[in-house]
Amino acid sequence: MSANNGIWLCQFCGTLVDSDAVRYPIDLLRHWKSMAESLALFEVENRSGAKQTSNFGVFWKLENRMSVLLNEMRQDLLQYPLKREFVLLKRSWTYWAAGHELCYYYDDHDDLEGMVNILCNYNLVRDVTFNNVKRYIFLEELVDHLSQDRTEV
Questions:
Q1: What does the chain look like in DSSP terms, one character per residue?
Q2: What digits encode the pLDDT tens for the residues 73-86?
Q3: Cα separations in angstroms, 66 against 11, 17, 54, 117
């Protein structure tokens, strides 16, 4: 046992997290902890009122709103670190992939298009749709966030 393994949550959140290991895997919890600690350190060290230049707050919000999608993207980028293009599909659709794109399915994520639109609004992905299939490119700031060394967590 070590304090480094502790993730301090309120009674409600602790029960929620402990009872759903699929939705809240250990890697996700450790990532959230790392982000919260980094944000707290940034705020303590920058109390002078200097404008925050980091996107810690944005990523924290996104991790809370769309953790399942971001974890899937994180795993895909771990497996395919040089891929940057992805499409949104339904599993029942016929799609002739070129082989260089990742696929995310409406069937797996409630409001997938809405989540990707939020990523576009934060300028973390770019819409490059040119046919009937929604197509996007990861921008490097999101790739860097999703590819952070998990051992730091």
A1: --GGG-----HHHHHHHHT-TTTS-HHHHHHHHHHHHHHHHHHHHTTT-PPP-S-HHHHHHHHHHSHHHHHHHHHHHHHSTT--EEEEE-TTS-----SSEEEEEGGGSTTHHHHHHHHHHTTSEEE---SSSEEEEE-HHHHHHHTS-GGG-
A2: 999 999 999 999 99
A3: 22, 15, 20, 12
What pTM value is reported for the model?
0.65
For the chain, percent of residues with pLDDT exceeding 90: 41
Evaluate whether 88 touches 116 at the Cβ level (below 8 Å): yes
CB-hemisphere CA count at 13 Å for 28? 22
Bridge partners, residue 88, by sequence: 104, 134
Please give the pLDDT value at position 33: 79
By residue range, what is the domain housing residue 93? Answer: 3-152
Which two tokens mark 43? 């705020």
Q: How many domains does the chain have?
A: 1
User: Distances from the Cα of 76 to the Cαs of 14, 24, 122, in angstroms?
Assistant: 28, 18, 21
